[in-house]
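Retry 2 of 3 after timeout on previous attempt. Resubmitting structure tokens to design endpoint.
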């Protein structure tokens, strides 16, 4: 009861005694990242860091004796006064448990820093030791256990006011004195402080800190002061940002009260950060601080209400001290619509139209909801839809945000009815152009968490929606929009490219390329260029052979040449598939026929490639001049893989998985393969092209080896190409850069060819088959694009 005995507060379970603050975890990650960055910078920029330390030492030598003595005294006192000040403050405030945790954290920080010093002394490189210690003498102690302990102690204690200022001054003085007078390096001192800070934050997050959340009686008092005297305040939920209460005033008005708590700042930042990396949503990281969240919520609620959407009206926004802010809005009685989804209940056409009308009102005012799902909709007793949780929306929405909103709204309305009804209702309210524009964003990636979770029981629904929306769209009306900033494939490509470049440059450093190319036999180089040209003839035949319709041969050849340019910006085979599919579509084939044709071609090409590799392996194994012998470890690994496959393939779950993966592929290519088989001459052209393609590539590598007087049998070199290109196809880098060179060079060396000759041969092969063709490939790409043939 309150002092006036008029307010009943019920809030069991929403205010824990201790809380794990998400922001502590974020700061700990930041501290660890800073330690890594400082260590790397100190090692890489060794001369710069050493110069800074030398300048500091020179400046310290010029300090007046009085200043040096005073600074030294302050630092010495700080190491005694700091712990005493912290302990006294917490004892006076009866925070004995927190004092014990702070002391324990300080001890752990000191031990960790001592361990790091031992590891650096025993295993650290000379450059790293010199960067941190400022000397090559490994008997010194570069890191400061006391400084780290003090940092951890202050972090856990969370002092405020005058005490915090005094402590901060003493810590800075100790830090500066150790650098200026004791000769410690800036990098070592920074790492010591950051280590203590990180351990203190880890202690706070693991053990929790005493909560500073205001009690319900304080919340009721603030509402009363705002003109809404509360008779009953009942907690109903805890959220990532705070608490929700249902309040009843003395005049029987009901309010929804949301309390934003400072100790929950940082909740959900990592998922938001990842979303901002993946998607081109500039607003994805906003509003994670308490004040930012309140400002955003207030802005969005007022904007949506003024726009005319059915949203609860915001009534009160008030601060509760420094650690919380409350908002109060009208309470709306109704049924959360996610309950309808859970029970598979369907809503009427009128309810769907009301939902889409609300979204249309928001979009016409430039407001994006950004969290549309059934859990954020309320169905009133009058069968009206109230839109909730608009606090994470955006003003002056972007085109991407508009399409994402429509995509999530389509999923939500389909879960409440069915796919066809959802699309038709959306078009009738929003207009065909607005709905069909979302076909490019109808992917799982753009769906919010609630909708992705709901679709787990309706796995085909998103595909049905996409197909229905696409039926109402034309390619001229729908403009693609880039919504993905960083895909996993792109991230892997970047990392793979860096690793590949590192490996390639490491190989180049071991070879005198100028001398080797000066001694090259250029007649073989010319033959290699000729066989490289034949690969495009074979690729054109491979495409033409699986199309019953007549294709213009010159343009088909140019399309294969254009694919060499596309390979510069895409992994192997991916660029070729995209160019050929686009080319066949432009020749008049349907999307299904073009896709099936390319799928059949790629599948048979893989089968023929593997068959040739097996044949080359047999031929190479029987050749007397083939010097390659598989290592015993490789044989053991191969046998292990075979035994593992024999063990898992009979398992029902594995068989079902393989069938689920293979069945769609077989269903896609089987009809086209049967159709092409009725024209044997066309199939012969296609298969002949695939054989010519592989043989020409093999001969190009053979000519490259012979150009440098390399040995090895023809079959062995062909096997290196066939095996190396197979592994290179799996590389995520554009054109398999780095991976192909590394694998083929290792293969040629294993075949008995000198390492320098092997690398030079592979580089010449890649020059003839990958780099030089991109020049005419660019012109072919431009020509076909200009002629609307690509």
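Retry 2 succeeded. Sequence:
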């Amino acid at each position: 009861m309150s002092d006036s005995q008029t307010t009943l507060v019920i809030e069991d379970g929403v205010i824990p005694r201790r809380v794990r603050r998400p922001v502590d975890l974020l700061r700990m990650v930041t501290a660890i990242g800073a330690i890594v960055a400082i260590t790397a910078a100190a090692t890489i920029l060794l001369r710069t860091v050493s110069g800074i330390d030398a300048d500091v030492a020179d400046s310290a030598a010029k300090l007046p004796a009085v200043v040096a003595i005073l600074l030294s005294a302050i630092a010495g006192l700080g190491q005694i006064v700091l712990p005493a000040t912290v302990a006294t403050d917490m004892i006076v405030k009866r925070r004995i448990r927190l004092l014990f945790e702070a002391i324990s954290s300080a001890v752990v920080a000191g031990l960790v820093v001592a361990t790091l010093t031992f590891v650096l002394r025993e295993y650290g490189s000379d450059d790293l030791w010199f960067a941190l210690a400022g000397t090559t003498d490994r008997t010194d102690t570069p890191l400061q256990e006391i400084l780290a302990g003090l940092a951890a102690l202050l972090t856990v204690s969370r002092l405020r006011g005058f005490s915090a200022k005094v402590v901060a001054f003493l810590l800075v003085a100790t830090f500066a004195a150790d650098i200026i007078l004791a000769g410690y390096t800036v990098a070592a001192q920074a790492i010591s402080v950051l280590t203590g800070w990180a351990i203190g934050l880890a202690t706070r997050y693991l053990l929790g800190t005493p909560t500073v959340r205001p009690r319900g009686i304080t919340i009721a008092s603030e509402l009363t002061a705002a003109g809404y005297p509360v008779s009953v305040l009942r907690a109903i939920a805890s959220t990532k940002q705070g608490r929700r209460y249902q309040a009843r005033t003395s005049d029987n008005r009901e309010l929804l009260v949301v309390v934003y708590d400072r100790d929950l700042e940082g909740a959900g930042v990592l998922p938001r950060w990842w979303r901002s990396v993946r998607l081109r949503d500039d607003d994805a990281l906003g509003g994670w601080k308490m004040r930012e969240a309140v400002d955003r919520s207030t802005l969005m609620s007022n904007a949506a209400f003024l726009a005319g959407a059915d949203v609860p009206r915001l009534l009160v926004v008030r601060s509760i001290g420094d650690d919380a802010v409350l908002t109060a809005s009208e309470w709306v009685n109704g049924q959360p619509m996610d309950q309808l989804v859970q029970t598979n209940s369907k809503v009427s056409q009128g309810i769907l139209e009301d939902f889409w009308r609300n979204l249309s009102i928001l979009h016409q005012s430039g407001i994006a909801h950004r969290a549309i799902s059934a859990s954020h909709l309320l169905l009133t007793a009058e069968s009206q839809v109230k839109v909730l949780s608009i606090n994470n929306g955006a003003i002056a929405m972007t085109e991407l945000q508009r399409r994402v909103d429509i995509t999530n709204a389509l999923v939500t309305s389909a879960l409440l009815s069915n796919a066809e009804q959802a699309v038709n209702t959306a078009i009738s309210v929003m207009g065909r152009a607005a709905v069909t524009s979302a076909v490019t964003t109808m992917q799982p990636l753009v769906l919010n968490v609630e909708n992705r979770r709901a679709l787990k029981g309706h796995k085909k629904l998103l595909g049905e929606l996409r197909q229905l929306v696409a039926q109402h769209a034309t390619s001229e009306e729908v403009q693609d929009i880039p919504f993905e900033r960083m895909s996993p494939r792109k991230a892997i490509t970047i990392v793979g490219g860096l690793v590949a470049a590192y490996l390639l440059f490491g190989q180049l450093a071991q070879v005198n390329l100028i001398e080797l190319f000066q001694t090259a036999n250029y007649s073989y180089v010319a033959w290699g260029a000729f066989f490289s040209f034949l690969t495009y003839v074979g690729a054109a035949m491979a495409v033409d052979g699986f199309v019953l319709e007549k294709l213009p041969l010159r343009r088909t050849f140019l399309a294969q040449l254009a694919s060499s340019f596309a390979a510069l910006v895409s992994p192997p085979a991916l660029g070729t598939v995209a160019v050929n599919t686009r080319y066949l579509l432009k020749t008049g084939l349907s999307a299904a026929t073009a896709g099936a044709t390319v799928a059949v071609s790629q599948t048979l090409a893989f089968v023929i490639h593997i068959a040739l590799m097996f044949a080359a392996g047999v031929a190479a194994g029987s050749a007397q001049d083939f010097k390659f012998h598989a290592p015993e470890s490789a044989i053991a690994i191969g046998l292990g893989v075979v035994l593992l496959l024999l063990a898992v393939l009979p398992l029902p779950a594995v068989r079902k998985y393989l069938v689920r993966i293979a069945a769609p592929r077989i269903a896609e290519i089987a009809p086209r393969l049967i159709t092409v088989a009725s024209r044997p001459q066309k199939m012969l052209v296609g298969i002949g092209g695939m054989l010519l393609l592989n043989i020409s590539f093999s001969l190009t590598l053979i000519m490259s080896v012979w150009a440098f007087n390399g040995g090895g049998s023809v079959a062995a070199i062909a096997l290196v190409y066939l095996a190396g290109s197979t592994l290179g196809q799996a590389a995520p880098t554009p054109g398999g850069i780095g991976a192909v060179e590394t694998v083929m060079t290792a293969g040629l060396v294993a075949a008995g060819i000198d390492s320098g000759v092997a690398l030079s041969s592979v580089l010449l092969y890649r020059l003839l088959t990958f780099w030089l063709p991109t020049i005419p490939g660019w012109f072919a790409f431009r020509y076909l694009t200009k002629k609307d043939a690509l």
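Attempt log closed. The two ends are 76 Å apart (CA to CA).
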